[in-house]
Structures are given as structure tokens and as C-alpha cells.
Amino acid sequence: MPQSLSLEQLPFSQACDNNKQPILTLLAEWFANRVNILEIGSGTGQHSVYFAKHLPHARWQPSDQQHYLPTLQSRLNIQTSPNLQHAIPLDVIQPWPQFTSQIDAIFTANTLHIMSKTMVEAFFVGVGHVLADSGSLVIYGPFNYQGQFTSDSNQQFNLWLQHNNPDSGIRDIEWISQLAKLQGLTLQEDIAMPANNRLLHFIK
What we know:
Layout: H1 14-30, E1 36-40, H2 46-54, E2 59-61, E3 63-64, H3 69-78, E4 88-89, E5 103-109, H4 117-130, E6 131-141, E7 143-144, H5 152-164, E8 171-172, H6 173-182, E9 186-193, E10 197-203
Parallel strand pairs: 1-2, 1-5, 3-4, 5-6, 7-8
Antiparallel strand pairs: 6-10, 9-10
Helix pairs in contact: 1-2, 4-6
């Protein structure tokens, strides 16, 4: 991907632009004492550049699958911050990177409903391996409760997801909490967010 691409030529997510400030409000509290933050599934990089800019005390590490890295890194090159790191490849079902610094926080947005169940399980195993004791895991996205959708729009979104990929789908919070518990993670807060999403905060 040429380095001369402008912001207007890069992939853009309106949802990221809409939700970045509500998410940041909580991250500023939860990550106040976190130094090395790993973002999994950075996508367009919009969250990466915004959160790194507004959390200058922290080292923000974007990551994604290899084929997303060229456009992701192009945005990071344009909207750089001193604490924003170069994007690294991370595929949850492949061996995870070896980190030279202890990861004390992990953030991911709108990823678990895209992943297959096998990938979600691998995600939590990987988090369990790399996240420091007493570290934070924050997950943004839609979730079901007791097998029920929280809105008609989420139910329609789930149909769209499964039409495109039968292995994807909105996950049950009870299953997510169980997977987290197996890795020593306890759900501390479950906050309602715009557009029928949630922000989950786990502590290891």
C-alpha cells in the first residue's frame, strides 16, 4: 500500500467514529494506570489513533490479521502519536507474538461476533497467556443475554452476519464470561453503550 495515500482514500468506519468518544470516556478511567495496551483487531485504525492520542501515558499497540496491516499502517503513518506503535500481525488461531513488555491491558471492538466460536475460544486462551496478572480486558460489541437478543436491530444484524458467514454471530454473555473465567478473568463491569452495544471490563 503506497505511503502517499490520503486519509480520504483509506477504509473508514462510521461506527468507529460514532462510538470512539463514549468508549474513551470509560477507557480513560479503566486504563488510567495501564502502560502497555494491546488492541486486537484494530481494523481501520480509527480507534488506535484516537485512543493513543487521548491516553498519552500509555503505549498503544495496534494489531490485526496480516492482510489488514497495509491500510491499517497507512492510517497510523498519517495520524501518528509518540505512544502509538507500528501495527503487528496477530491472528488469534495462530501462535501469538512474543511481547518484550508485559501487557497490562487488552482492548478489542466489534470482533467476537465476526469470529467463529473456535476463534473466540482461541482469543480468550491467548488473552490468558499474554495479559499480566491484575490486567484489564475490555471488549466492545453486541451481546445476547440468556440467549435473547437485546433489540430487533441486533437480531437483524445477526441474520446479516450469518448470511455472510454462518460461523459468525452475536455471542451470549454467559458463554463469554465462562471462557473468561477459565483464563482467570472476572467480569467487573458491563456497561450499556450506543446502538445496542456493551462495554465489558474484565480483570485478571
